[in-house]
């Protein structure tokens, strides 16, 4: 396929990045890296001078549009959760830039970040761990208001908590204000986490596998609630999920990650219905289908994800790819626009 239109070189760290962002962009990420130095024992250090790193996120670039639902997909170990935390500066990046409303937030101190924090929120995977068991619901939801000192009185705090609890259908809110998390069901707890994330009317939210710990029967309603909240608050959301079927259902665009790199990026329809990258194709083939006659099996993607400390040379997917050829072990494929608005990092398209 020779329809290359433009290229995002995932290995190019040399160029100065454009500070201007498109009017419709909330966030732009350029060449973002998060490497964790590997702790080694005394003997290992004696025998090897080379510093070893876990390359959790390695030169990732993309942008998020205003009001967009953007899914980050991939197996566990692909780097999507680390990327989500780095985007919010909950974890500091090793290198690269994160432009948020035009400002490179990688250069800001935590103190300088504080006013921007009201614009960026996170919803964690586990509502059993993310809500402080010793705090009542009113205080959990009000916490961002208090940290940011945006409410003028206690009456206003309570009013805003009741309002956002009503939005997430924890009703009547008066009945829940003085309860503790353990008195709520899993679905109710995640609704409380959503309320806390939206009480400051953020423009950017990261939701990290927000329904994977919930009972299957209530996942759809919690997902739909989040989509409603995103739309109502005109926010943009990065929805981290290993579930491509869910990503297609909710997201405008999807980026598929593998070993810290973006392998494919496009609209959710293009990625799920017409995947170009062999890894995405394998992930989709592995999605269980209800039809017993179907030839799809879970074995289409073989082997374990390699170690992010020492990823394969060239294409990181080559050790599991049925189409791997010589070039794949020597040259890392850049992320190219193989079809209109459809980016892929694979030598089959270059
Ligand atoms: Fe497979 Fe090679 Fe494409 Fe990597 S670059 S996905 S190994 S064909």
Short structural description:
The protein has 350 residues and is α/β, with parallel strands linked by helices. It has twelve helices and 13 strands.
SSE inventory with pairings:
Elements lengths: L6 E2 L16 E13 L4 H6 L5 E13 L3 E5 L6 H8 L7 E6 L2 E2 L5 H8 L2 E4 L3 H4 L6 H12 L5 H14 L18 H13 L5 E5 L7 H17 L3 E5 L3 H7 L2 E6 L2 E7 H6 L4 H8 L40 H5 L4 E5 L2 E3 L6
Parallel strand pairs: 4-9, 4-10, 7-8, 8-9
Antiparallel strand pairs: 1-12, 2-3, 2-5, 5-6, 10-11, 11-13, 12-13
Helix pairs in contact: 5-6, 5-7, 6-7, 7-8
Characterise the protein shown here.
- With 350 residues, this protein is of the alpha/beta class.
- Helices cover 31% and strands 22% of the residues.
- It is built from twelve helices and 13 strands.
- It has a nine-stranded mixed β-sheet, with helices on both faces. A four-stranded antiparallel β-sheet has the order 3-2-5-6, covered by helices on one side.
- Strand 5 and strand 6 (103-104) form a beta hairpin.
- Helix 5 (137-148) packs across helix 6 and helix 5 (137-148) runs parallel beside helix 7 (186-198).
- The radius of gyration is 21 Å and the shape is globular.
- It starts with 6 loop residues before the first strand and ends in a 6-residue tail after the last strand.
- Mean pLDDT is 88; it is low at 1-18 and 295-299.
- The structure holds iron/sulfur cluster (SF4).
